Amino acid sequence: MRPNFYHVVFSPIWWIAIAALATLPLWLPSYYLHIATLALIYAGLAAAWNIVGGLTGQISLAHSIFVGMGAVFASALLLQLGINLWVAAGIAAVLSGAMGAAIAWIDHRFRLGHLSFALITLAFAEMAELVVLGWDFLGGASGQSLPRDEGRFLLFQFGGSHGYFWLVMALATLALVVNLAIINAPLGYFLRAIRDNENAAQALGVGLLRNKMIAMAISAVLTSMIGTAYARYSTFIDPHLFASPVLTIEIVLFATIGGLGTAFGPIVGAILLVPLGEILRGQLGGVLPGLHYFIYGTIVVVVILALPQGIGPAIARMVRGFRGAKPVAKAAAPSAKTAAEAQGG
User: Fold this and answer.
1) Between helices 161-183 and 30-50, what is the axis angle to 10°?
2) Which of 103, 125, 224, 313 is most buried, by CB atoms within 10 Å?
3) 59 with 112: CB under 8 angstroms?
């Protein structure tokens, strides 16, 4: 593990930011607390997807499957079989990890290109949505309603909006720390080497299958865990939300706008765009139908054109410029030599 990981995690700024964020439920109005909770949910999902899409370069559109496993399948285990939701969430996370590893194996076995991989994962996601809509065990098209929250922690109940905010904050922080750990560990070098040039990475001895499977499994498990928390927070599990590939498109958008392949970029993208979309809808949704979507889309296009590497890297450059520090080498693009050194241990 590179010292940079410990430098970030043990930085006072890090802990001050977390402490300040944790105080939001104590003074923020309920409407804005709901927006902040949604922002953290999508921040965690975007950070989890970044492990595959940003670091490994595999544009997976199948992550709605993993969200659905954590939300729809785990809830069905509770409602249909009476399994404790903590246990159901664990089962869903394990199955999601196995499914993610299987998808990575298919990618490696058939040597899929980036476009083929994206299309195949999209097809998997579409098939999964059809399964959810047509299977009564999973609630079908009518969805599922979870029992009322009575604040019983042992039943995966967190006692209202305050508790769920802290839950999703912890999960988003976990996803961020996992990103930081991977980026600063040999696994991060291997994944970035695979992303930049698979053949060169393989020639250097990087295990393509093993590292792709590890990345997809980690990403899927994190996504499933956040999916369960999202479902419990929402109470009603709408299959058109939790099992829809559109959800993955949103996650990819947040990660891309924030900065692919960086630890903080996907978090920044979600924290900026989710509140923006919700506030525009709340303020302009009743003025002219579709106006908030038009403004939101225009802002997204402008940001992509002005900051092609994302908002996160742009902020990092501004901070370095403010401090007068010299530019550092791009962490997301290790040299082949570095990957070889990491492979050597």
Assistant:
1) 20
2) 224
3) no
Q: Is residue 60 part of a domain?
A: yes
Residue 76 domain flag: yes
pTM above 0.70, yes or no: yes
Question: d(Cα 230, Cα 250) in Å, to the nearest integer?
Answer: 15
Give, for 275, the enclosing helix (H) or strand (E): helix 265-284
Amino acid 345: pLDDT = 42
Predicted local distance difference test score (pLDDT) of residue 281: 83
Q: CB of 75 within 8 A of CB of 67?
A: no
139 lies in which domain range?
26-319
In whole angstroms, how far apart are CA 256 and each of 49, 252, 253, 287?
11, 6, 5, 30
Q: What is d(CA 64, CA 124) in angstroms, rounded to the nearest whole number?
A: 10
- Residue 330: its pLDDT value, please? 47
Mean pLDDT split into 10-residue runs, the chain, 345 residues: 83 90 93 94 96 92 94 96 96 96 92 88 94 93 92 92 95 96 94 91 90 96 97 93 90 92 92 89 75 80 86 85 60 50 51
The interaxial angle of helices 85-109 and 114-134, nearest 10 deg, is 140
Contacts of 303 (CB under 8 A, 6+ apart): 257, 311
User: CATH number, domain at 133?
Assistant: 1.10.3470
| Residue 14: inside a domain | no
DSSP string for 218-249: HHHHHHHHHHHHHHHHHSEE-HHHHT-HHHHH
Per DSSP, the three-state class of 144 is strand
